[in-house]
Automatic annotation (TrEMBL):
<dbReference type="Pfam" id="PF01842">
    <property type="entry name" value="ACT"/>
</dbReference>
<dbReference type="GO" id="GO:0051287">
    <property type="term" value="F:NAD binding"/>
</dbReference>
<dbReference type="GO" id="GO:0006564">
    <property type="term" value="P:L-serine biosynthetic process"/>
</dbReference>
<dbReference type="Pfam" id="PF19304">
    <property type="entry name" value="PGDH_inter"/>
</dbReference>
<comment type="similarity">
    <text>Belongs to the D-isomer specific 2-hydroxyacid dehydrogenase family.</text>
</comment>
<keyword id="KW-0560">Oxidoreductase</keyword>
<dbReference type="InterPro" id="IPR045865">
    <property type="entry name" value="ACT-like_dom_sf"/>
</dbReference>
<dbReference type="InterPro" id="IPR029009">
    <property type="entry name" value="ASB_dom_sf"/>
</dbReference>
<dbReference type="InterPro" id="IPR050857">
    <property type="entry name" value="D-2-hydroxyacid_DH"/>
</dbReference>
<protein>
    <recommendedName>
        <fullName>D-3-phosphoglycerate dehydrogenase</fullName>
        <ecNumber>1.1.1.95</ecNumber>
    </recommendedName>
</protein>
<comment type="function">
    <text>Catalyzes the reversible oxidation of 3-phospho-D-glycerate to 3-phosphonooxypyruvate, the first step of the phosphorylated L-serine biosynthesis pathway. Also catalyzes the reversible oxidation of 2-hydroxyglutarate to 2-oxoglutarate.</text>
</comment>
<dbReference type="InterPro" id="IPR036291">
    <property type="entry name" value="NAD(P)-bd_dom_sf"/>
</dbReference>
<dbReference type="InterPro" id="IPR045626">
    <property type="entry name" value="PGDH_ASB_dom"/>
</dbReference>
<keyword id="KW-0520">NAD</keyword>
<dbReference type="InterPro" id="IPR029752">
    <property type="entry name" value="D-isomer_DH_CS1"/>
</dbReference>
<dbReference type="InterPro" id="IPR002912">
    <property type="entry name" value="ACT_dom"/>
</dbReference>
<comment type="pathway">
    <text>Amino-acid biosynthesis; L-serine biosynthesis; L-serine from 3-phospho-D-glycerate: step 1/3.</text>
</comment>
Length: 529
């Protein structure tokens, strides 16, 4: 039974799928402190959060069983991704479910700041009928600068056109062609600062976007600009903004987010009559909360059940077309890694992954992670290494990972070869996906074989002489070890040969010791896949 902890208020309807799952037990405990979380997280396999819970390295460290942290929303700045990656904890988010909702909140804020709605409301309910103080401006024919043309920024631009606004968009990934298709102008930050009447930011908070609008930008800003931030506190320098308002550069601002949330009681935004605020409500609609909770719950279930999943934040996304090609190779890659790690003695120095045939033209990065996981898990334990942290762990341990590709695969349409270089040896194994047979090991060092990479294998290197196979079989039989399949690979008749047996149970060490006493027998090695 998997245990899932929900530590923020998350839509009940959204997590229904988890609650209904027969193999999952859900505990809802919103509002726990870090210490309280540290005390209980050890018993959970998954943690579901919104933006309140700060998932710190301490919590990850205490989460010995934790496989996944699911964020019901977009921004994952409340989750320590570095610590999660190091511990192999998958972090997933729900990037699509609250896009429209946040876009609509941006418009609510833009219109509210253009027409002084909150200020006018306060006076009216306070009994003052003041129609003079709240002269507003139209959106029509105004220039709107959109910083960050991702999901939300693009939806904002689309709707702003309906208001008759001219849109300047800036995003490092926005091309001239896409801007043209959207009917907006591709602009620089400087263009927006100097020309926009309204500006709205929709970027993540990164070292690059922190204070991207600060004193320097306010100094050259078009006077009378109105600014909206429904993305992340800190993209706009709060103190510099207050100064710019006091200097008459900025006519008004609408903020849903703060550098520190909740803001301090004496935060200057809270008393400035030209700044309107909401308490991080961008995603707070019934629809969005259901959407993000449903999305994240589904992915958490997949991860707990070891099924393919999407939206991992601490793993590069795999495009659908690449995934469909690579997915069948994932088990093969991992088994080859595990096989070669068990076969090769000594401290691992280098893993060389060679792809030949059909795989030469594919971005194999996701598959590399499986191979490296297979190798490292043998040394570090399967619970310590997964496809999220395998590359990171290899780097941390100075294990070089080299990837080669060639379009020629001799007798196969596709071939994956893993070579392991250690302080003591260099061994290699090749595998292929065979139509109708699935994954097969087709070569071990220079011996051609044909073995399914599963179960208990016994590898025996020997001289190719009559009677050896029978002697090994007799010794196994005498010890109640049943042979399921047997293969012999040899280069030359009478030369060195490799016997690969699949056996129904693991061969005890005492039997191996006995087998290696046979004449002409060099080595015997048990491998479990
Ligand atoms: N207020 C709220 O409740 C909510 C806030 N958000 C926040 O809104 C922001 C945008 O979310 P999405 O559109 O879903 O994300 P997204 O990832 O689809 O878009 C972000 C865009 O920002 C761009 N970007 C990155 N660095 C940039 C830079 N230096 N200058 C200009 N553009 C840059 C990226 O290329 C990307 O296109 C995020 O910070 C997210 O956390 C999202 C949902 C709700
Ligand atoms: O969960 C929330 O309300 C915050 C949403 C948000 O900021 C995000 O998804 O990035």
């Amino acid at each position: 039974m998997f245990k899932v902890l929900v530590s923020d208020p998350i839509s009940d309807l959204g997590i229904q799928k988890l609650v209904d799952a027969a193999d999952v037990a859900v505990d809802k405990k919103p509002g726990l402190s870090e210490d309280e979380l540290v005390a209980i997280i050890g018993e959970y396999d998954a943690l579901l959060v919104r933006s309140q819970t700060r998932v710190t390295p301490r919590i990850m460290e205490a989460g010995k069983k934790l496989k996944v942290v699911g964020r019901a929303g977009v921004g994952v700045d409340n989750i320590d991704l570095e610590a999660a990656t190091q511990r192999g904890i998958i972090v997933i988010n729900a990037p699509d479910g609250n896009t429209i909702t946040t876009c609509e909140h941006t418009f609510a804020m833009m219109m509210a700041v253009a027409r002084h709605i909150p200020q006018a409301y306060l006076k009216t309910v306070g009994g003052v009928w003041d129609r003079k103080s709240f002269l507003g401006v139209e959106l029509r024919n105004k220039v709107l600068g959109v910083m960050g043309m991702g999901r939300i920024g693009s939806e904002v631009a689309k709707r702003a056109k309906a208001f008759g606004m001219e849109i300047l968009g800036y995003d490092p990934f926005l091309t001239e062609e896409r801007a043209e298709k959207m009917g907006i102008k591709l602009a620089s930050v400087d263009d927006i600062i100097r020309n926009a009447d309204f500006m709205t930011v929709h970027t993540p908070l990164t070292p690059e976007t922190r204070h991207m609008i600060s004193r320097k930008q306010f100094e050259v800003m078009k006077p009378g600009m109105r600014i909206v931030n429904c993305a992340r506190g800190g993209i706009i320098d709060e103190l510099a903004l207050v100064e710019a308002i006091d200097q008459g550069i900025v006519a008004g601002a609408a903020f849903d987010v703060f550098e520190v949330e909740p803001p301090a009681e004496d935060h200057p935004f809270l008393t400035n009559p030209k700044i309107i605020v909401t308490p991080h409500l961008g995603a707070s609609t019934v629809e969005a909360q259901e959407n993000v909770a449903i999305d994240v719950s589904e992915q958490v279930l997949h991860i707990l059940r070891d099924e393919p999943f999407i939206n991992a934040v601490n793993m590069p996304p795999i495009p659908a077309n690449v995934r469909s090609v690579l997915q069948p190779y994932f088990p093969l890659g991992e088994k080859l890694g595990s096989f070669i790690a068990q076969l090769t003695a000594g401290a691992v120095k280098e893993i060389v992954i060679s792809y030949a045939g059909d795989l030469a033209d594919v971005d194999t990065q996701p598959l590399n992670r499986y191979v490296v996981r297979g190798v490292l898990a043998h040394h570090l334990g399967t619970d310590q290494v997964n496809v999220v942290n395998s590359m990171h762990l290899a780097k941390e341990r100075s294990v070089n990972v080299v990837v080669n590709k060639s379009s020629v695969a001799k007798d196969f349409t596709n071939l994956v070869t893993v070579t392991l270089r250690t302080e003591e040896a260099e061994r290699k194994v090749s595998g292929a996906l065979m139509t109708g047979y699935g994954p097969r090991i087709v070569q071990i060092d220079s011996y051609p074989v044909d073995v399914a990479p599963e179960g208990n294998l016994l590898l025996v290197s020997h001289t190719d002489k009559p009677g050896i196979i029978g002697s090994v079989g007799t010794k196994l039989g005498n010890n109640d070890v049943n042979i399921a399949t047997m293969q012999v690979g040899r280069k030359l008749a009478g030369g060195d040969a490799l016997m690969v047996l699949t056996v129904d149970k693991q061969v005890p060490a005492s039997v191996i010791d006995d087998i290696v006493t046979l004449p002409e027998l060099h080595k015997a090695k048990v491998i479990s896949l």
